[in-house]
Amino acid sequence: MRMAPGPVRPTTLEAPPSPRVLWVGVAGEAWLALSRAARALGCEPVQASAPGAVSLELSRARPRLVLVHWRQVSERGPGGLGGLKSRVGASGAPVVLVAEPETPAEVLEAADAEGVEDCLLAPVGEAAVRARLATLLGARPPPVTSERYSPRVVLLAGGAGGARTWAGLGSLLEVSGHHLLYSATVEGAAARVEEHGSAPHLLIAVGDGARGGVWARSGTAARALLEGVPSLTVTPAESGRAATLLPRIHAMLGREGASLRVEERVPFCCPVEFGEGGPQGLAWTSGVSFALSPGGLFVRTLVPARPGAAVTLRIHLPTTGERLESHGVVAWANPFAPRDGLCCPHGMGVRFMGMGPPRLMHLRQLCQATASP
């Protein structure tokens, strides 16, 4: 005798864990703002301050975003964030510094050297945290970029030994707003193109015969991508004088790059607020500068303003306590997004506009220091 089948129990699928947001610092106003913004977007906020507690939280699950109070950097000493960045992983969560007007310059410089990608100013607002999380979670659509401001992809082949140093060709191109594919050897250049999956706008080959070497070592897929791509061959000596190549490269890419004067930039770390005009007036957000030139300011932030937008800048100088205000135009912007093998800083380059002579002279004096190699 057959028994009637019993009720079928629906299969229960385990819900994926909520994205975690880690606050490294004591509980306070910043932690409350972070908690509210995180929960509103379906994230789990986690707080830790002691090194052991931070390590424990990182071992449980990798966070999507890490905010660090500047006193944690100061108390941990030089290299204090290095362990945190290595635990998060190169492809993991960005680390955001929370700074105050009294944050010492050496703390900002240490944070920049150790990979901080953004900066929030205390008191931390819920909207500022929400904007970062929305960008990371894909809930904030990327800004529409016109052809005039769309980034150019450059393949730099055979550029070993200095392409990404401070004055190297690759570094200058990155802070000019271009996206770089690096290959230290000619042999690896074709593989880099295939990995990227689309044609670069320019191939720069370092060394005699390097352009032909890239083509000779390319398979069918790489040759299809490199067909018709303009190229520039430079000698090792020319690559060592990278600034002299910039006008020619910008002309080949159809970009105006001289006004930022990237070859004259120097390290310059300070909190920066920037406001972009809109129907409700200026919408303010923040970041941290990493370089300054007589022509512009270079800012790390996960939520840059739109390329081509006019912005008002508030530059907080930690050494003097001054707050300089200026106006500028966003020359290039790289909002947070998977890089897919491309090298480019998250943030933006802002070209100074309409700066008065006294303020421009003051900034030029700040640029007198010799840049570290």
Automatic annotation (TrEMBL):
Residue span(s) of domain PilZ: 261-368
Gene Ontology MF term list: cyclic-di-GMP binding
Pfam families, per database record: PilZ
UniProt superkingdom: Bacteria
Name of the protein described by the UniProt record: PilZ domain-containing protein
